[in-house]
Specification:
With about 140 residues, this protein is mostly beta strands. It has one domain. It contains no helices and eleven strands. The strands form three sheets. The chain has a seven-stranded antiparallel beta sheet, with no helix packed on it.
């Protein structure tokens, strides 16, 4: 939900309608989202959270180049969660491209448009029950 906090930064969940800003958190080398009012607290987004940026989104590799995506809207998600010791938080854009949150240029403002729908505790999606497995047929070589 908030892997850019590195567990060393105070965090809180995002709220619909608030403006957040990309920042590098003090004492870390990673970037994430914070409230405009308090950039020391990481604002955590759930996968599926929709954002509207104030300008076309800019990202960089911190050393050589900066690029711009011709889009102002995106959806927060995770990429490669099965790979440990890597940043997973990313923004997906309408063209299907992703940018890691830690690569977003500092100082960009975004409004939280919509949080993902979550199920209340105790309610679960109805899944059909498997009554019986079909046996697997194995053909043996003849001869």
């Amino acid at each position: 939900m908030c892997d850019y906090s590195l567990h060393a930064v105070a965090t809180r969940p995002a709220e619909v309608g608030e403006t957040i800003v990309t920042t590098t958190f003090r004492g870390t080398s990673t970037r994430g989202f914070a409230s405009e009012a308090d950039t020391s607290v990481a604002v955590c987004l759930l996968p599926g959270t929709e954002l509207a940026f104030a300008d076309n989104v800019r990202y960089d590799n911190r050393w050589i180049w900066t690029r711009t995506i011709n889009s102002r809207v995106g959806k927060f998600g995770k990429i490669d969660p099965h790979i440990p010791d890597r940043h997973h938080d990313a923004i997906e854009f309408p063209d299907g491209k992703y940018v890691l949150v830690t690569q977003l240029v500092e100082g960009q403002r975004a409004t939280v448009l919509q949080l993902p729908v979550t199920q209340p505790l105790g309610e679960r999606e109805h899944k059909p029950e498997v009554i019986a497995e079909r046996p697997t047929i194995t053909r043996l070589p003849i001869g």
